[in-house]
Amino acid sequence: MSKSLKNIVKTLFGGLLLTSLVGCQSTPPAIVSSPDGLIRVEFSLTEKGAPQYEIAYKDSVVILPSTMGFEFKDQPALKEGFKITSITQSNFQETWTMPWGEQSEVENKYAEMRVALEETKAPNRKLNIAFRAFDDGIGFRYEFPEQEGMKQVIITDENTQFSLTGDHDVWWMPGDWDIYEHLYTASKFSEIDALGKQNDPNLAATYIPENAVNTPVTMRTAEGVYLSFHEADLTDYAGMTLKVDPAQNSMVSELVGSDRLQAKAEITIPFNTPWRTIQIADRAGDLIESKMVLNLNDPNAIGDVSYFTPMKYVGIWWEMHLGKSTWDMEGSQSMNTFTNSGETLSNHGATTENAMKYIDFAAANGIRGLLVEGWNTGWDQWINTDDREGIFDFMTPYADYDFNKVMAYAKEKGVEVIMHHETSAAPLTYEKQMDVAYKFMKDNDMNSVKTGYVGKIIPKGEYHHGQWMVKHYHKVLEEAAKMKIAVNAHEPIKATGKRRTYPNAIAREGLRGQEFNAWAEDGGNPPDHLPTVAFTRMLSGPIDFTPGVFNIKFDEYKKNNQVSTTLAHQLALYVVIYSPIQMLCDLPEHYMENGKPHPALQFIRDVGVDWSESHVHDGEVGDFVVIARKEKGSGNWFVGGITDENARSQNISLDFLDPGKKYEARLYKDGSDAHWNDNPQAYQIETMEVAQGDDIAIAMAPGGGFALSIIQK
Ligand code: NOJ
Ligand code: CA
Fold first, then answer.
1. Does residue 669's CB lie within 6 angstroms of at least one atom of ligand 1?
2. Is 567's pLDDT higher than 60?
3. How many angstroms separate the CA atoms of 26 and 500, rounded?
C-alpha cells in the first residue's frame, strides 16, 4: 500500500484504530468485534507482509500487535510476504445442551472473521486465519487450505506471539512437557522462572526445556482486567506451552516436541490447528463461568452418553498413597516409595474382603461408585523399573481378588465398579489391548475407566504433551466411545474442551491432586493451592481432584505429611472443584466417629454431582472462591467456599432461590478456633430454614471454607 493510501486509511478510521497508533501495518486492519461490542480484534499485515493481530477490551488495548507464523522442516518459514486475498465475516448463535455439566444449556454466540492469506512470491503458499470474538474472549486458529506443493508438512515451530501491555500479575506453572503436577506460582510476569522448577523430586517424569509456562495461564493487569491464555480442540497437534520473554512482556507459543520427529508436529494439509484462546473478564469469577473453550469445540460426535451417570465414588486408593496397603500383592521394593519406610510391606489393598468393605460403606451412604486400584497383576514392576512395557494386561486379577465375587456383590448392593487401567506410560501396549480390555469391562457391566500414565513415555523421546500422545489420548476416547465407556484420565493431556465433542471424556487429573498431600517431600499442597486451581487449571475442564479427607493429619500413617486445609474446606470442594465424578477419597473408617457416621458426611451424601446452573458468587485468584450450583433434577442448591491461609468472611445473599419456596439450609463451617494446621478438624453444623432473599454471613478460618446445602422442603 502506498504511503498516501495509508494516510487516507488512517484518517478514515482516525484514532479508533489501534494499529494506526503503531503505524507499522501495510494493510488497513480487518476488524471483528464481540457481539456486545466490548472486545475487538484487529488483524493486519506489517510492511513486510507479516500477519499480526491485536486486541482491545472496552477501548483499551489488552494485547499489543503480535505476530504469527510457522517454521518447517525442508521448506522456508511461513511468516511474511503475504497479501490478503479475502476477508469474510459472519455471525453465529446457538444454544446447546450439556449431557452432564456445570449447567444445562450453553449459549454459543460469536462473530467470526476469516482472513485468507497468500504469499506474493513463489511458492505462493496459502494460510487462512480464523478469529472468533465472543463476549468472554477470543479464539483464533490457523487453517492450512488444500494447495499444491504442501501436503505432508513437519512443523518445527509455531510462533504465535502474545504481546502483553505490562508486567502483569501471573499465576503460572512451568511448561513441563511431561506433567502438569506442579504447584502454581504467583509472581509478576517479569519474574517467571520456569527453569527454576526443574527436577522436582515428587514427579515421576518431568521435562522443562525452556522458560515457558503451561496453559491455562491466568493474569491480572494493573487496570484489573483478567486474562487467561489456553487452547481449544487439541486433537492432532502438539500441546502448546508459552515461552516467556520477561524483558519484552511477551510470550510466544512453544509447542511440545518429539525427539523422534526432531520437530513439533507432523500435519497433513488441509489442516486446522487448535484454537489459541484468550479469556477476558472484569471479574475473576467470570473466567470460571465462561464456556468459550467448550464452544470452540465441535458438537457432540458420539451421541447418547447416558451409559455414564454422574456420581460420587469411593475407592481402594488413599490407603495406598498413605502407605497403609500396597497396589501389588508381592510386597515389592518398588512400592516403598509410598511407605517412606524402606522396609518391604506386604499388605495388598485390593483384596476381595477389602473391596466388599468399601462396597458396604458405599451402599450404606448412597454412594454409587467404587474404584479398585491394584486389582490386576503387574504392580510389583510398576514404578522404579525402566522396563514397564507390557507389565499390565487389564484382564488378570490378583489371586486374592475374586473379581467375579466382587462384581456380583457390588451389583447386589447397587454399586457400580469403576475399572482401573494404569498403563505405566506404555501407550503402545495399551493400544494393543484396548479392545479386549474394553470388551471385558462391558461384559462385566463396567461403564467407566480411570486410566493412568505414570513415568516417562515408552517409547523414549515422546512426551506426555506432544502430538504423538495427544493422538493416543484421543484414540482412547474414540475407542472407548465405540464401546460406550467413559474415561477419567490421570497423567493426561490437558483438557481443551473436547468433552463437548466426546462427552465420554468425563474428568481428568492434570494437576497436583490430593495424592501429593499423602507423600510429597515438600509436605503437599499449601492452603492457596485450590483457590488458585479454580482460576487456572479448572478453566480447562472437570478435575478428578479426589476431595474429602476427614482425617486431616493422618499421623497414624505419615507423621510428616498432612492435608493443609480444614475439614470444612474439604467439604466445599465438592461444589467448588467441578467434576461429574467426585471421590470420597478418605478411608471408610475415617468417615466414622464413635461408631457412627461422621456428622459432616451428611453433606457429601447430599451434595449433587450434576448441575443445571452454576454461579461464581465471589473470588480472587489465589485467595478465595465461592461458587453456588443448582442440582439438576432436584432443584436443590449447594454452595461451597474455600480460602487460602487467610481467614475471611462472606455474606451470601440467597437471591438465587425460587420465590415462594421454603428450604432447609445446613451450613457446615469451620469451628471458631479452626485453622488448617493448628486445628483443622474443628467444624460446626448449623441448620436453618431459608427463603429467597435471606442473607447468610459465614466466617472462614485460615485454610478453611464452608459448605452449604439448601434442600427444598
Ligand atoms: C497416579 C494417579 O494420579 C493416582 O491416582 C494413581 O493411584 C496412581 N497413579 C496409580 O495408578
Ligand atoms: Ca498423578
1. no
2. yes
3. 39
